[in-house]
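Q: I'm a student working through a structural biology exercise. My instructor gave each of us a protein and asked us to get a predicted structure, then write a short paragraph describing it. Mine is N-acetylmuramoyl-L-alanine amidase. I'm not confident about reading structure output yet, so if you can add a plain explanation after the tokens, that would really help. Here is the sequence I was given:
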Amino acid sequence: MNQRKVLFFIPFSVLVLALSFCNTACANTNETPRQSNDTIIVPIVATDEVGEVKTDSQCIEIKDITNEVSYGHNPEAKPNVDVIVLHSCYHADSPDTFSIEGVIKQFIQYDVASHYLIARDGLILRLVSEDHVAWHAGKSALPTTKRTGLNATSIGIETICSKWNGPTEEQYTALAGLVNDICERYEINYIVSHEDIAPTRRSDPWCFNWNRFKAKLSEKALFAISKRDRFPKPKLTEKQRRTRM
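A: Happy to help. First, here is the predicted structure for N-acetylmuramoyl-L-alanine amidase. I'll explain a few features afterward.
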């Protein structure tokens, strides 16, 4: 007897119970993320060999600390989001390079913030509501358009890593899950690096394996990130290469 016939004879009560469980356990990739007072559960999306989108049995958890963040954003400004910007950051002034607290102290010092911050263990912190403009991109421009000032049209995601130690596997998984979720909720046209939009100032995300990241992306996210391939290569002076972060 094949699998389809076996499923046909499952008692109705068991089937109802299973469906009820699926509705509460992030089994649908199109499901709107569930939000409580401090956490949001987002499905991790993977793609199988024939290109069908499916949901992994695991979930990523987003810890919302927006109530604690009064810096680095404008709560009165509403972004018109169609870009995701990927960043890297670390705590430069401490032996604990990857300290979340240290990174946040630097954000406070420079009055900057991204919407999301991903720790080394894959924990995602939401710093700024997606409904607010976060100051993460700085002076910036899309290479193939005349659009500048990308804070107004983007969601920024910082991954804690350094120029010598790239993202962990947990960070790649969390980042991809978050990006896939954002692409389901917005019409995202571009997924870019900070370097793409500010090449004379920035070189992040550092030590980033783009192929490893792309292998975890949904079809929508892959379409948005594919536009990076058409970006012209920036012409930088040796001084610019040495001084950019």
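A: Here are two points you could use in your paragraph. The CA atoms of residues 44 and 124 lie 13 Å apart. The chain has eight helices and ten strands. It's a good idea to check both against the output above yourself.
Q: Great, thank you!
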